[in-house]
Amino acid sequence: MSRKIIHIDMDAFYASVEQRDHPEYRSKALAVGWGGDRGVVMTASYEARKYGVRSAMPSSIAKRKCPHLLFTLPRFDAYKVVSRQVRQIFQDYTDLVEPLSIDEAFLDVTDNKKDILSATHVAQEIRHRIFEETQLTATAGISFNKFLAKIASGMNKPNGLTVIHPKDAVGFVETLSVEKFHGVGKITAKKMAQLGIHTGLDLKQWTEKALTQHFGKVGRHFYRIARAIDNRPVEPNRVRKSVSAEDTFSEDVRDRKTMLKQLQKITEVVVQRMKNTQSFGKTVTLKIKYHDFQIQTRSKTVYHPLQSFEQIFPIVEFLLQHPQFPTKAVRLLGVGISNLQEKSEDGLGLQLVMDL
Q: How many domains does the chain have?
């Protein structure tokens, strides 16, 4: 039996919460983030997006695109409160809820608690309740698998609803730009373009073997979704793939001592987050963003679980030096722990299986 999957995505979540709570921001071009010369936009209101302001954009560029842009600092506690409200609404319809982030989730409503036959009606009810209880809007995408549901939720934002029916799925995917496919970032899209792959139809012409040869294991995923096939279940107990933290310097830095001091603070944040989730990791990744916005990552995997500062920071320090100390001025540093495990009752780590 075909599944009924909904992807709910809150609209401009952080900015919408700020506009709801602060009347002076309503109908204004607003960015949540840090407005200084070294700042970054976390979320932009739709009024700001009309000017080309986007998340992860340097604040200086955002201000050039939208001179009247307002900035406000993030209030994560407020966002978490709303997220819990929305999550409770989801739970009233199904226990099969897979959060992707604080503001989006997959829901499997094939067998829902209210015995509503139409997934579209479920999504309409959920969106109505979200607005009634939080005064915020959400967009929904509905289809028979996660891949299509997520694409659908991005087609009619904000405050929209899109359904991709099984009979339309193959034709829809054939017309889709490959940049819309899960797992296709800028680098992969560029590589695909070099191979003459621009749309789902182009991708569909390639064999699974050929895609695997060019893209590795993810090539099998590309082969399936080009045919609208995605058998991944909604996983309510899915564990995050990594824990990370990063910070941007107020000025570009070349000094080793300053970098290590910053990395100590970042590592302490990562360690606390791991303890909060009772998780361990085996792979440490150092992220370096240079003054010219070039990003470099360096990773090291060990055989024993890592959780403490004393275990992790020496590896971070090693990665800063190898293969060589940064030769250019550094704008941002980050630390991540992946290859996660959870703590079992006997105190040993149990490897977690992650999906694509």
A: 3
Burial group, residue 326, by CB count within 10 angstroms (0-12, 13-18, 19+) = middle
Domain range for 309 is 242-351
Residue 15: closest CA among 43, 34, 37, 55: 43
Sequence-distant (6+) residues with CB within 8 A of 301 are: 282, 283, 284, 339
CB 16 within 8 A of CB 138: no
Question: 10 by DSSP, 3-state: which?
Answer: strand
- The residue behind tokens 């982030």 is 101
Q: What is the pLDDT of residue 342?
A: 56
Task: Say which of 104, 179, 208, 345 is annotated catalytic.
Answer: 104
Looking at the structure, tell me whether residues 113 and 4 fall in a common domain.
yes
Task: For residue 179, give both structure tokens.
Answer: 């940049």
Whether 317 sits among the annotated catalytic residues: the reply is: no
Question: Half-sphere exposure of 48 toward its Cβ, with a 13 Å CA cutoff?
Answer: 31
Residue 182 CA: distances (Å) to CA of 52, 106, 112, 150, 189 = 23, 14, 27, 9, 11
pTM for the model stands at 0.74
Say how far apart CA 353 and CA 238 lie, in whole Å: 9
pLDDT band at 170 (very low <50, low <70, confident <90, very high): very high
Q: Are 324 and 317 in contact (CB under 8 A)?
A: no
- List pLDDT tens digits, range 187-227: 889 999 999 999 999 999 999 999 999 988 889 999 999 99
Which residue type, as a one-letter code, is found at position 79?
Y
Residue 237 lies in a domain: no
Let me know whether 24 and 101 are in one domain: yes
356 lies in a domain? no
Please name every residue paired with 299 in a beta bridge, in sequence order, or none if there are none.
285
Same domain for 201 and 121, yes or no, is: no
Q: Which of 29, 80, 71 is nearest to 52 (CA)?
A: 29
Can you tell me the distance from the alpha carbon of 272 to that of 312, in angstroms, rounded to the nearest whole number? 12
